[in-house]
């Protein structure tokens, strides 16, 4: 936010006054608040960023809207669809902007992939394969170990970013199914940490998403994903460092951009634009509800099935 040329002046609120003051000093904030309610009551505050564990998101979002503030709520915004509907009604009553903090939507990698597919550089999409595999275990005291605080397991809390990318490149995901390996509860990181998702686009293309935070990977996180078309293939480093386009002619190597590689600056610019112009943000509640609907389908598909009938 400090890199955006002063379009925001930040302050910090926490239930711990000393912690809020420490953040304010560290990041050059305007002031700090000993409690969320104190920040919401300040008429000088125009907007709030809700950046606490997901189980607290809805309550703070509703209080902020009732206080007349614009809201950016981190993703996953709410643990269940009902929370999105409640926030949508409150947003409409308040006439304020709500952005869901899906920074991956704005990252240069996602923007460039959308452009390449829209330009037809690989022709009709046939397969899409997304891989985000790394061994990144949480410590015992991390709040993400508590699925109530986090809203769900590791895939729900973090994998939703990758589900969004898979569904935001142009074609729309219309059917999705989740497959979860037998979970391990060993060690301090007790979460369910792996998921494989298969899906179908409205164009007829099909895809897969491999997510894990317990499987070792090259260089502790180097991963390659691919989009297969009838005229070529797009390979990309999943973190956004590089894209290779292979089709007609010589393969091209593209660098989407490192300056805002995770998309946070673009996300906050969009938040500012929506507030100042009254136009809808790219990552609106409605767009996030599409992702939540897919999440609901994935977890519903994990329910144990009845006995399988076998023809003999």
Summary, kept brief:
This protein has 312 residues and is α/β, with parallel strands linked by helices. Helices cover 32% and strands 22% of the residues.
Number of domains: 2
Global outline: globular
Query: CA-to-CA gap between the ends?
Result: 65 Å
| Helical residues, percent | 25-40%
The number of E-state strands comes to 13
Q: What is the CATH T-level topology of the largest domain?
A: Dihydrodipicolinate Reductase, domain 2
CATH class membership of the largest domain: Alpha Beta
- Report the CATH superfamily of the largest domain: Dihydrodipicolinate Reductase, domain 2
The structural class is: alpha/beta
Mean pLDDT: 93
Radius of gyration: 21 Å
- Specify the biggest β-sheet: 8 strands, mixed
What count of helical segments does DSSP give? 9
Q: Judging by the overall fold, what is the CATH architecture of the largest domain?
A: 2-Layer Sandwich
Strand order of the largest sheet: 7-8-9-6-10-11-12-13
Beta strand %: 15-25%
The secondary-structure element order is EHEHEHEHEHEHHEEEEEEEHH
The poorly predicted ranges are none
Structural commentary:
With 312 residues, the chain is of the alpha/beta class. It folds into two domains: 2-102 and 264-283, 3-Layer(aba) Sandwich (Rossmann fold), CATH 3.40.50.720; 107-254, Dihydrodipicolinate Reductase, domain 2. Helix content is 32%, strand content 22%. The chain is built from nine helices and 13 strands. The protein has helices at residues 17-27, 36-41, 57-66, 81-94, 108-118, 147-150, 154-167, 264-277, 285-301; strands at 12-14, 32-34, 47-50, 70-74, 98-101, 125-133, 173-179, 194-201, 206-212, 224-229, 233-237, 243-246, 252-254. The strands form three sheets. It has an eight-stranded mixed beta sheet with strand order 7-8-9-6-10-11-12-13, covered by helices on one side. A hairpin with a 4-residue loop joins β8 (194-201) and β9 (206-212).
């Amino acid at each position: 936010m400090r890199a955006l040329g002063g379009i925001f002046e930040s302050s910090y609120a926490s239930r711990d006054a000393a912690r809020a003051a420490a953040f304010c000093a560290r990041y050059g904030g305007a002031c700090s608040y000993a409690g969320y309610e104190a920040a919401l009551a300040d008429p000088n505050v125009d907007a709030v960023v809700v950046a606490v564990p997901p189980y607290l998101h809805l309550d703070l979002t509703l209080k902020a809207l009732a206080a007349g503030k614009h809201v950016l709520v981190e993703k996953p915004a709410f643990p269940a669809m009902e929370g999105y509907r409640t926030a949508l009604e409150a947003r409409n009553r308040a006439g304020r902007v709500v952005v869901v903090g899906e920074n991956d939507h704005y990252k240069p990698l996602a923007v460039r992939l959308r452009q390449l597919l829209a330009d037809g550089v690989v022709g009709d999409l046939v397969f899409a394969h997304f891989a985000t595999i790394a061994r990144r275990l949480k410590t015992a005291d991390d709040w993400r170990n508590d699925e109530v605080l986090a809203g769900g397991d590791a895939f729900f809390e973090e994998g939703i970013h990758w589900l969004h990318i898979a569904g935001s490149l142009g074609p729309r995901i219309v059917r999705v199914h989740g497959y979860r390996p037998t979970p391990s509860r060993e060690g301090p990181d007790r979460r369910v940490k792996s998921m494989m998702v298969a899906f179908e686009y409205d164009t007829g293309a099909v895809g897969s998403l491999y997510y894990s935070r317990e499987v070792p990977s090259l260089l502790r996180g180097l991963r390659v994903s691919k989009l297969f078309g009838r005229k070529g293939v797009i390979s990309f480093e999943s973190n956004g460092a590089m894209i290779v386009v292979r089709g007609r002619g010589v393969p091209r190597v593209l660098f989407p951009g490192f300056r805002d590689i995770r998309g946070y600056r673009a996300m906050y610019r969009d938040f500012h634009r929506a507030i100042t112009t009254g136009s809808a943000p790219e990552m609106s509640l409605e767009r996030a509800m599409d992702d939540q609907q897919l999440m609901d389908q994935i977890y519903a598909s994990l329910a144990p099935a009845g006995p399988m009938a076998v023809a003999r």
